[in-house]
Amino acid sequence: IGRPLARVLGVPVISTIHNLHSRMYRAEFTPLVARMGLVCDRLSAKFVTRFVAVSSGVRRDLEAHGVPSDRIVVIYNGLNLDGRPVAAPRETVRRAWNVSPDDIVVGTVALFKAQKGLSFLVEAARIAVAANPRLRFVHMGDGPLRDEVARQIADAGLGERFRLLGRVPDPVKLLAGLDVFALP
Question: How many Cβ atoms are within 10 Å of 62's Cβ, its own excluded?
Fold first, then answer.
């Protein structure tokens, strides 16, 4: 709706695309709603002055969906590390998580959304914990699929081995508590 309206008002339209549209709609919506979303995107793309893709993969996806290359610019997502919060001491973080110094902690920061692949992380945790009981998993974030992932964790028998910390305002402060960062 915003794309044609902005064009009518004479305002340049810049549309930032964060996901592979060909997969995003199918991951989050019913097939009918997903199809409608893709159709609306395709119809309104002609009103966009410039697309900003956050990765080369998103650029390729836009091109595959008919967006001309000269209307796409890639600007990678990134963190400004100059002003980042100071990480809490490793021992403090791990004590708060109730893990021992000998535990191997695997963690991630992500929204509970299908495209984040958290169900794959839960399945990997189930397999890995069976091979190494020292493994512990933590997740920082919130979102619409939290209850579903919590059920998967319970069904996998991971109990206290996989902790959902919820929304963490400054997750960078807690990263020192991890041994491995996983991005499924």
Answer: 24
The length of the chain in residues reads 184
Kindly tell me the number of DSSP H helices and DSSP E strands found in the chain: 7, 7
Cα 12 from Cα 15, distance rounded (Å): 10
- 7-21 pLDDT per residue, tens: 899 999 999 888 766
Cβ-contact 124, 184 below 8 angstroms: yes
E-strand ranges in the chain read 14-17, 50-53, 72-74, 104-109, 135-140, 162-164, 180-181
Amino acid at residue number 115: Q
pLDDT tens digits, 57-91: 899 988 988 899 999 999 998 767 677 777 889 99
CA quadruple 134, 89, 77, 149: dihedral, nearest 10: 40
Q: What pTM does this model have? A: 0.71
* Distance in angstroms (rounded) separating the CA atoms of residues 32 and 162: 35
Query: Tens digits of per-residue pLDDT, 2-58?
Result: 899 998 999 999 998 887 666 677 777 788 988 888 888 888 989 999 999 999 989
Question: Cα torsion at 113, 116, 119, 123 (round to 10°)?
Answer: -160
Output phi, psi for 155, to 5 deg.
-65, -30
Which among 44, 36, 34 has a CA at the least distance from the CA of 1? 44
